[in-house]
Amino acid sequence: MFILGHFEGIHSKTRASEAILGYMWRAIRTFDDTKPSADIDRCPQGWKVDLHQHAYSDRIAMKSTPGACLPGYASHFGIANIPFGIASSPLHPQPQCVSRFEDNVIFLADIQSLVDGLCSTVVFSLPTLNDFAALPRKIHQEVRRRIQQLLAQDPSQLPVNALEHISAVQMALPVRSGDFTDFSCSADHVLNASEAMTGSRSHPPSFYHQPVGYAGRCSSLDISGSAQERPLGQFWAGKPGNSEIVFGPSRCMDYELEVGALVGKPLGRRERLLAKDAAEHIFGFVLVNDWSARDIQGFEMSPLGPLNGKNLGTSVSPWVIMPDALIPFNTAAMPRKAGVPVRAYLDGGQPRIIQLQVHIALTSEEATETVCRSNTAYMYWSLEQCMAQQALAGCGLQTGDLIATGTVSGPDEEEHGCLMEYMKAGTTPPRGYLDDGETIVLDGYCGEGVGFGECFHPNRGHYDHRLRRTLKALRRHTEPCLPKGCIRVPFAKGPMSAQIILYAIKKLTTTNVHTSVRCVAKGSTEYAAAAEFENAPAINNNDFSGDAGIDCMTFESTFPEFFEQVMIPLESGSSTFDNVVRPPDVSNFTQDFSFNASEFDFSLLEDPAAWTETQLQHPLNKQTTTSAEVSRSMAESRSEALKRSPWSWNHWVPPSGVGAFAEHNELNVDEDRVNAANRLTTPRSGQVSYCSLEQSNRDQMIRIITKCTALSMPSFPTLQLLEDLINVCLLEDSHAIDSHIHIPTLDTQNTRTELLLAMVARGAAFISFPPIWKMGMMLQDVVRYAIGEEFEKDNSVTRELQAVQVSLMWVTTGVWSGFRRTVEISASFLQPPVTMLGWSNAFSRSQYSDILPTPEDSSEVLDQKWLAWSEQEARKRLVFHTFLHDSQVMLVHMRPPLISPAQMHLPIPASRDLWLASNAHAWRSAFLAETPAEGKTMPSTINIFSDPELLSRLERPTDKSLCYMLIVHSMAHEVFEYRQQAQMLQHAGKRRQRDKGLSHMSKLRDLYDDLTTLLTSVETDSSSPTEISFVLEFLMMLLHVSLDDIQVFAGRSGEDEARKVYPQVRTWTQDAESRRAIRHAGQVFQYAKKFEKTRLRDFYAVALYHSTLVLWVWGMVTSGISRQSGVSESSKAQARVLLDGPESRSTKAFVQLGHGTPGLEVTPNPPNDTSAIPRTNDNVEGFYSLSNSRCVMATAAAVLRGNFPHPKGGLPPLVGNLASLLDDLGTLPT
To answer: Which one of 56, 274, 466, 772 has the fewest CB atoms closer than 10 angstroms to its CB?
Structure first.
């Protein structure tokens, strides 16, 4: 970090340094780690703060919040566990007894049936578990059994208020402890610790005779999530005995991984306890972290035991695991030491030890490191034996007492339970002790849904310690080469350091100096703050190399100059400006997306309450400035800045060496289920279960991922999450017009694993929570690799229906993903599945036979017919889906199609009643009910393309919505060909234009009549989906405008090309063709507002965006012409023409004669839309003209956002990109 300061009237570096040091002292003494950075948010006007936010590479995102629970541990708390704890929440403000099942916290006081005939519910309302723990063990067992019974039978019968999500509660210490004793049960720890301190591996003489321990204290017991401060004390500055004794914060902070037993049934004074009877006195078990300051401990432990080195804090996990849950995981204890007898009070018969896998992770700002993987099976002494040893002298046991095992270590180095064991008396390079800011996470897991969850604690430095480091840094790095009164200090990394510096600089504002703060090393892990004072000399830019945020350009500053240059004719002899400003590429609506592993922090997945708008939404990166005038000398830098624009498609070059899995190497998902609040699915879909996976399906998925990629998988989605995502995919497909997956016959055990993975990725695209759809995009790459290998390995796979479904599913998902690389690759890979379908004769009628059920068919024969028919129909519908997708890509990306309507000789689709029939008998019943006795065959698809009225004359029902959509997109091919011919004629000679012009205009009239007639037919059918009318209006708009010209004028190819196309666009705006185009563009708006919620996405969202561009350019050019001619728009306006309203006399007069002022209806902003439609003189009555470009863009953005009500995790990426781009374009003055 750099601090630059210049004090007016102060020319001494020493005095300047002293001034800042004084503020540093007060800043560090008063700054609290646990406080949010609210001080930074309240910086005085003129400050610019841009602090890089670190992302942990693991799922752990810690906050110093006592009682907080980390997400990702639902699997620890299955129905076989059922722990107990103390928690509170806004609904239950008083701490009370709770249990946990997966991520559900159960408030036991709300369930009377749990204690009927056992005890009073009062014990569940108390702020500790002591009263409940003191009850006989059989009552604990019965309460636990009743909870399991309720959950197993019908959890919905639980009172509504009794259940809360784990993210909504705050845990507290489970018991009130009177005594804490810490034993030393691990032989490996004793040997490792001895080697670290003395260099020799030895154990105390009494270790193998009895458990050895020390009496701790309970005043500093803390719940998980509490921060631990570095303690003060005296210790040797260097080698013990050969260095000075110093006083200060400990330099050797350490943790100790332990397991503790909580006493339930008390034991009176002077009563003895046998190890074999101790289990009756154990209420439950917890994880324990016994903090240690090794330097202080080493200095004071001669000759007595530890005091300040050990009493700084002991942390326990919040959930008490019951002994019965751990019985299945008991294992034989280690062999006893030969020749050492076991005393009777310690002899428990066949000694047993809990087999608990324990882990320790250290998380800092830079990385997460797993430093220990151990197991309690390594312990020599059990907790029952420790309890017997505790009572041996007659002290008794009180309910709530904590008996801990001491450090749990194993024989291997990775199994060391504390950092001291790594030291080995200096014979090997030590790992080092804890640093400030590191967070320690302990967790323990037995298996089969039984675990302890987590015990995590941030390590916080002492204020005086941080102050001392700050002073040293300032004195060491003050440089004499800087201007007078300035200092430059490379400082520690991390947001905490930045906050301390900013706090000090803020205090400087009280001395009447001008202060500004800015990021100097943007994008790196370093932070910078600069304090610039009045009358300060110019700062050398070399001191701020790497400041990418300085002089960043915005569209507000570049666009006015751009359009002014384009729309005002050049004077004779003048030429285009040097350093041409390049505006953003309005033809692209994607963004870059870095799959950096550090961004895959799935800790939020199980904590919906923590999902903030900043964390969840994913708008395009914006660079803004308030300057309205931009110096022409900065044109080159503006151009470079705009080339980095997330939507600058024409300037985007895929970076070298970046491909699939190049920037992400870890798949780590801890979410158990899909949160219903994050589903961007059609409201009428509901929650229906179509898919049931087995563990073998999940194993096969893991096998494919590990085979095809180098991804590491610390965790993989649970069966429930995989099922949820597949069900979302199937739900959306079943409600889609072009549904092509036959759900009733879907058998996951006979389904290709690649198809299941593709459905998981597809389902993830309908989840608004970014970590979920990011995971889905990773799986798309996996599917692409996996299915490609299958085709290479066996060419016959190209004829399998499921294999082709896989290829098309990842292609269609990727094309509408909204990310550049994925869109480009997906659009490129549509050709292979189209070729496979063509070579398998899927477009030919001969491939499809009439499969007719009869009343006489036996169940076996009927099932065989149904399965054969369903596969044939699924293949047919897959062809239709491919045809529609190819046409949609053709329209929005303006590229030639791969499939011609003339190829579509296959029969038209069967009715949806047949397609959705749940079984063979339902299929036969539907078939016999709708098929006439003569059983006429269905016409081919090309027949209805040639004669759409054939649909109304059919005697057998068909899927009319799908047929209409197919007809519409067959006409889309004709519209595309017409626009291509118009482009050719535009560049042809005058003679050819004259010869071909009449036929071209005739083609226009015929196409327009056909589209109009079809729209009338569709609108008379009340069951027709809105999407069909939407596409027809979009096609009629395209028929009258060149999208290519619109986008070039808007700046897609730069100023020179925009200037060249401007005369054509200007001529177009003065013609009736343009008025017809904007009329249909307005109707696109009208139908977009009628879309079912969450359906205005993918192709339809892009089509609305293109329509918006047409309205925007028309309004901008016509208002520019009016200004240049001096004719006021209001003077010629005869009526207000509502383009997105119904047909009226005013709309006809405008289209045919140009009378009136066209505009749109004011659309209210949806609740989740942060933009605002400005109120101007022309929209106070619910109408605004197209000259108000900001309102046009704001309305389109509001329609997009309004189709996704209250998206908790933000809009789909593509929709979010479009809405953000519309917002930016709407801010440009015209």
So the answer is: 274
